[in-house]
DNA sequence: GCACACTCTCTCGACGTCAAGACAGTCGAC
DNA sequence: GTCGACTGTCTTGACGTCGAGAGAGTGTGC
């Protein structure tokens, strides 16, 4: 089945036959799919009264395991936002009682962000909802295709995630 | 090579062994990769004094072919933003002299957005820059792998692009 | 012809993000 | 010890996006 990127690529080949636009076949699909996923996630989370950004932070802490705490800096690398944004997010989550700030005992510049019990429950509930939705989206693909796709994507993400950039 | 999503999935399997988190292997990579690409694009465009959102609009018009004009509504579906955002974008691009608004002769509610000569030049220059950068990112993959990846992604994007939603 | 549902664009206010820089605390070289 | 470069977090102001809804215009069924 044709998608918007097929139309986009065909248009470029007509307008700029001198250029090789093959990279768009992969990377424009990644960008567009991510936007579609954002919208879908926003909808799925609204049932749990959570915003996507809240989910991102709460689940990062949940994944850390007991006692469910990370520094703001560690949260940055997991969520790919800037430090100012993370300060703001932590403020708002703390105001809602889903996380709390504690001084880092081993570094007085530092802070630890800890999930409250309610924050943990919300993280668990919304993860289940997200997985259900994602399974529906991936229903298009066989198990083997999903695994193939994951492996190819890993080759693209690994350099970003490992070389500090 | 391992990436951040491998670590994320391993953490979930440890913390929530009762859940099947396999969907994250694909979709978390898509979301994270898109964020990395956004950052890289922002950097690449800054050489041409363009923002990513400006690029998106100008190139949509450029692709339309002579006389390089589309309605705001057509631009919405191509760029995946809301109508309020598009009005704002067109305003700013018009103020910079890269596009102009014309009344739609066949529908008096409507408007046509047309690329100026300068807008067209900027679109052409920045596309070349973007493709160069994207080729570097995709250097990890063979031609066959890129084509495989594009085909798998198409299966995921096509439902979003074709079923209105 | 007329009413009514629909389409298209724009307006408005709230919100989240970013970039740049400030500030306190840390740590190695000497 | 102490100086200086570095690190981790927070502050600030500008900016772009969103959602909801308003207003003008269209066109179909009757």
In a nutshell, what does this entry contain?
Two copies of one chain form a homodimer. The first copy, chain A, has 165 residues and is mainly alpha-helical. Chain A is 68% helix and 7% strand.
Protein described:
The structure is a homodimer of 165-residue chains. Chain A is mostly helical and 165 residues long. Chain A is 68% helix and 7% strand. In chain A, strands 1-3-2 form a 3-stranded antiparallel sheet. In chain A, helix 3 crosses helix 6 (117-138) and helix 4 crosses helix 5 (83-95). The model of chain A has no long low-confidence stretch (mean pLDDT 93). At the A-B interface, helix 1, helix 2, helix 6 and helix 7 of A face helix 1, helix 2, helix 6 and helix 7 of B. The first copy, chain A, binds a DNA duplex (30 and 30 nucleotides) through residues 51, 53, 71-73, 81-89, 92, 104, 107-111.
């Amino acid at each position: 089945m044709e998608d918007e990127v097929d139309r986009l690529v065909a248009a470029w080949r007509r307008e700029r036959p001198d250029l090789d636009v093959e990279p768009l076949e992969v990377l424009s699909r990644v960008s567009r799919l991510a936007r579609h996923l954002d919208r879908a996630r926003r909808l799925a989370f609204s049932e749990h009264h959570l915003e996507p950004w809240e989910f991102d932070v709460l689940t990062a802490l949940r994944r850390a395991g007991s006692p469910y705490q990370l520094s703001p800096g560690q949260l940055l690398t997991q969520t790919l936002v800037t430090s100012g944004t993370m300060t703001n997010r932590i403020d708002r989550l703390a105001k809602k009682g889903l996380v709390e700030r504690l001084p880092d005992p081993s570094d007085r510049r530092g802070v630890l962000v800890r999930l409250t019990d309610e924050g943990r429950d919300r993280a668990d509930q919304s993860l289940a909802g997200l997985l259900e939705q994602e399974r529906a989206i991936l229903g298009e693909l066989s198990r083997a295709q999903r695994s193939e796709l994951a492996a190819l994507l890993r080759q693209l993400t690994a350099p970003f995630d490992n070389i500090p950039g």
